Amino acid sequence: MGIRNHQQEELQRLREKTLDAQFLTTIQQGLNCSPFEATAVLDVVQEVYDPVMTTVSPARPGTLTLVAVAADEPAGKPVAQCGKRTIQVTLHRGAVDDHLLQTQGPAAFRRARIPDLLQEAVDQDALLTREDLAYRIFGVAPRTISYDLAALRRLTPAPALPLRGTVHDIGPVLSHRVTIITHALAGQTTTEICRQTHHSPDAVANYLALFTRVVQLQVAGYSVAQMAFLLHRGPSLIQRYVDLIGELQTTDTGQQQLALWQESGAGSAAGKGGHS
To answer: How high does pLDDT run on average in the chain?
Structure first.
């Protein structure tokens, strides 16, 4: 038995998370093609479309586009055989991160951003790995990311860290997000929610905005599949929000909270007190 070359294995996993690899996996599985046939199709597509694919919508400043493994793929499945998602994540939030880097350094910056980056990926039905965080996002060694993750897990309460290697379904991640919404429904401020959940104000605002849109679309009679399509989110996430709405409607307190949420501009109460 030969000696495993972990560095080569690491590089191979990274090669499997590119647009070309995503295309090859999709066409092999969707059309039952051989690897040779899929590669031939990819060559033709690149030859025909590359010259005209020069106009791309610019990403927002501070964002990164990368390919990650789909969230519904089991942790033990080889990356080459997994479905992929092309996602956008927010690495740098502007002045707040400039200040963080200047006053506390790169380690504090990474640890502030990792939970949100992982959550952003889950929002887009994908899961990141330590290697994604190390090589594709922060430009450090995986061991450095391991130290960061260990430090985050020592926090009380510890933030949700939905890495591909540790998440078999996204229930715990959704539960963490639902906790944020529940705090907001109970009238807590954004500052209070951020302190209790270790999420940034932007992340909290995004979760509440998505919940608001789900409430509005459900009232308008849209199905889970239609909402997922319109909001560019996974059906499992939308279903959990719909389930939460259903749970709220079973109690008088929940009905009052939901009614107040809708009447007050769907969550404006969460913003009272501002960001600190």
So the answer is: 80
CB contact at 8 A, 68 and 120: no
Average pLDDT over residues 223-236: 80
Closest CA to 153 of 191, 114, 192, 126: 114
Which pairs count as long-range contacts for 247-256, CB under 8 Å and 24+ apart, including other chains?
Answer: 248/185
Delimit the domains of the chain by residue range. 11-47+59-153, 171-271
Separation CA 250–CA 264 (nearest Å) = 21
What is the distance between the terminal CA atoms of the chain, rounded to a whole angstrom? 58
DSSP string for residues in 88-109: EEE---SHHHHHHHHHH-HHHH
pLDDT for res 50:
65
Is residue 61 over pLDDT 60?
Answer: yes
Cβ(93)–Cβ(122) under 8 Å? Answer: no
Is there a contact between 248 and 258 (Cβ–Cβ < 8 Å)? yes
Q: Give the residue ranges of DSSP H helices in the chain.
A: 6-15, 19-31, 35-49, 95-104, 106-123, 130-131, 142-153, 171-185, 190-197, 201-219, 224-231, 235-248, 252-263
Is it the case that residue 240 has pLDDT exceeding 70?
A: yes
The pTM (predicted TM-score) of the whole model is 0.56
Secondary structure letter of residue 158 according to DSSP = P
Q: Whole-angstrom Cα distance, residue 22 to residue 266? A: 38
Give residue 276's pLDDT.
31
